[in-house]
C-alpha cells in the first residue's frame, strides 16, 4: 500500500481520496478550509453507502473513512510517498501552493497534478522535483470512472511514471498516456464544446435542455454538454477555458460571457444547486 | 400522508423527465432514462426532502423502482426528521 497525500478536498479531491482508501491505501486529505474537509467526509460516507445500490462493490463507509486522515496543514503530508494535488484550476493558486508543498513533503515523494488543463511541465517548474512530477487527469465522479489521462512532463523520470502507473493500476484505473499540452486530449475538445454550447444558450439559439437533447438523442451521448458542465462545475469549466485561452493566445478559446456571469452569480452547477439547470435540495434538475 | 409522498415522488421524477408519462407502478429503471446519477438523486430526494434516513440494507433497487415502491419504503422506515419546507 502507498501512503498517499491528497491536497484539495473539493469534488475531485474527495473522489480521489475515496477511491484510494477504498482500495486500501492510507490517505491524508488536506484542505485549508475545514468546511471542505467536513463536506468531503460526508460525501465519501454517502458515496460508500450508495455504492452497491449504484451497481458498484459493497463498501463499508466506516472502513473507507477510517483510512482517511484530514488536516488543514500541509505539514501532515510530510511522510507521504505520493501527493495528488486537486485544488481549484487556477494558475495563481497553484503557483502559491506548489513551492509550499515542495517544502512540506519529503524530497523523494512523487507529485501528481490532477489538473484539467494546465501543462504539467509548467506546474513541475514550480518545484525542485520536476523529475518526480506527473500529470494525471482524473474524470468525475472519480470512483466511477474507469480511466484517466496520464501525462509525463518534460523532465518526468521513467521511475516516477512507473510509480504513478502502479498506483493507478492498484485502484483500478486504466491510464491512457498522452503528451503534455494545455488541456491534453480530453479538455482541449470538451471545454471548447461546452463553451460553444454555452454560446448557443447565450445567443438564444437554443435553451440548455434543447442543446443537451440534441447531443443525447442525435449523437447517443449519455449526457449533453451543459448537463456535463453542471456536473463538472461551471466555475471549473470557465477556469479551464481561461487556461486554454491564456496558453494558446488564440481567440477560438474565448470564454463565453454567460459562463463568467454564472460563475460570478454563484451558479456553479450541481454543487451550488443551480447552473444551467436548477436543482432542489436533493440535487436534482427541476427543468431539464 | 401516503398520497402526499406519492405525489411528491411523482412530481420529482416527472419534473426531471417531463417527456414521460408515469404510472405509480411503472418500473422506472425499465424506462431507459435512469442512470446512476439519477438513481443517486432519487435516494437523496427521499432522504432530504422526505426526511427519511434509508437504512443501508434497504438501499436496494427494488425499493426505488416505482412510485409505489418508494411510498412503501417511506412508510416502512418512517419519517425521521421533518422535511424542509418548500
TrEMBL record, chain A:
<feature type="domain" description="3-hydroxyacyl-CoA dehydrogenase C-terminal">
    <location>
        <begin position="183"/>
        <end position="279"/>
    </location>
</feature>
<comment type="pathway">
    <text>Lipid metabolism; butanoate metabolism.</text>
</comment>
<dbReference type="InterPro" id="IPR022694">
    <property type="entry name" value="3-OHacyl-CoA_DH"/>
</dbReference>
<comment type="similarity">
    <text>Belongs to the 3-hydroxyacyl-CoA dehydrogenase family.</text>
</comment>
<protein>
    <submittedName>
        <fullName>3-hydroxybutyryl-CoA dehydrogenase</fullName>
    </submittedName>
</protein>
<dbReference type="InterPro" id="IPR008927">
    <property type="entry name" value="6-PGluconate_DH-like_C_sf"/>
</dbReference>
<dbReference type="InterPro" id="IPR006176">
    <property type="entry name" value="3-OHacyl-CoA_DH_NAD-bd"/>
</dbReference>
<dbReference type="Pfam" id="PF02737">
    <property type="entry name" value="3HCDH_N"/>
</dbReference>
<feature type="domain" description="3-hydroxyacyl-CoA dehydrogenase NAD binding">
    <location>
        <begin position="3"/>
        <end position="180"/>
    </location>
</feature>
<dbReference type="Pfam" id="PF00725">
    <property type="entry name" value="3HCDH"/>
</dbReference>
<dbReference type="InterPro" id="IPR013328">
    <property type="entry name" value="6PGD_dom2"/>
</dbReference>
<keyword id="KW-0560">Oxidoreductase</keyword>
<dbReference type="InterPro" id="IPR006108">
    <property type="entry name" value="3HC_DH_C"/>
</dbReference>
<dbReference type="InterPro" id="IPR036291">
    <property type="entry name" value="NAD(P)-bd_dom_sf"/>
</dbReference>
From TrEMBL, chain B:
<feature type="domain" description="Carrier">
    <location>
        <begin position="1"/>
        <end position="78"/>
    </location>
</feature>
<dbReference type="Pfam" id="PF00550">
    <property type="entry name" value="PP-binding"/>
</dbReference>
<dbReference type="InterPro" id="IPR036736">
    <property type="entry name" value="ACP-like_sf"/>
</dbReference>
<protein>
    <submittedName>
        <fullName>Acyl carrier protein</fullName>
    </submittedName>
</protein>
<dbReference type="InterPro" id="IPR009081">
    <property type="entry name" value="PP-bd_ACP"/>
</dbReference>
Amino acid at each position: 500500500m502507498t501512503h498517499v497525500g491528497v491536497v484539495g478536498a473539493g469534488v475531485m479531491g474527495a473522489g480521489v481520496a475515496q477511491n484510494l482508501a477504498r482500495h486500501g491505501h492510507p490517505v491524508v486529505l488536506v484542505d485549508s478550509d475545514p468546511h471542505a474537509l467536513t463536506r468531503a467526509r460526508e460525501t465519501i460516507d454517502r458515496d460508500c453507502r450508495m455504492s452497491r445500490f449504484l451497481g458498484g462493490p459493497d463498501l463499508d463507509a466506516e472502513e473507507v473513512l477510517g483510512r482517511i486522515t484530514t488536516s488543514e496543514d500541509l505539514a501532515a503530508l510530510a511522510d507521504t510517498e505520493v501527493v495528488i494535488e486537486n485544488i481549484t484550476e487556477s494558475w495563481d493558486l497553484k503557483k502559491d501552493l506548489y513551492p509550499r508543498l515542495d517544502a512540506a513533503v519529503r524530497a523523494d515523494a512523487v507529485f501528481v497534478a490532477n489538473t484539467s488543463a494546465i501543462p504539467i511541465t509548467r506546474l513541475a517548474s514550480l518545484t525542485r522535483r520536476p523529475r518526480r512530477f506527473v500529470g494525471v487527469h482524473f474524470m468525475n465522479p472519480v470512483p466511477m470512472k474507469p480511466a484517466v489521462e496520464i501525462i509525463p512532463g518534460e523532465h518526468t523520470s521513467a521511475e516516477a511514471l512507473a510509480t504513478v502507473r502502479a498506483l493507478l493500476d492498484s485502484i483500478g484505473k486504466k491510464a491512457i498516456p498522452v503528451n503534455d499540452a494545455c488541456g491534453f486530449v480530453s479538455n482541449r475538445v470538451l471545454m471548447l464544446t461546452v463553451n460553444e454550447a454555452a454560446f448557443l444558450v447565450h445567443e438564444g439559439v437554443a435553451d440548455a435542455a434543447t442543446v443537451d437533447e440534441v447531443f443525447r438523442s442525435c449523437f447517443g451521448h449519455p449526457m449533453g454538454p451543459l448537463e456535463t458542465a453542471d456536473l463538472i462545475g461551471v466555475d471549473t469549466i470557465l477556469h479551464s477555458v481561461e487556461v486554454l485561452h491564456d496558453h494558446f493566445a488564440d481567440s477560438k478559446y474565448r470564454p463565453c460571457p454567460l459562463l463568467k456571469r454564472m460563475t460570478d452569480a454563484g451558479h456553479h452547477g450541481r454543487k451550488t444547486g443551480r447552473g444551467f439547470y436548477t436543482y432542489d435540495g436533493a440535487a436534482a434538475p427541476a427543468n431539464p | 400522508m401516503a398520497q402526499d409522498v406519492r405525489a411528491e415522488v411523482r412530481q420529482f421524477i416527472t419534473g426531471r423527465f417531463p417527456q414521460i408519462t408515469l404510472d405509480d407502478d411503472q418500473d422506472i429503471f425499465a424506462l431507459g432514462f435512469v442512470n446512476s446519477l439519477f438513481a443517486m438523486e432519487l435516494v437523496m430526494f427521499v432522504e432530504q426532502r422526505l426526511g427519511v434516513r434509508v437504512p443501508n440494507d434497504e438501499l436496494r433497487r427494488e425499493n426505488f423502482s416505482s412510485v409505489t415502491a418508494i411510498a412503501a419504503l417511506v412508510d416502512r422506515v418512517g419519517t425521521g426528521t421533518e422535511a424542509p419546507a418548500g
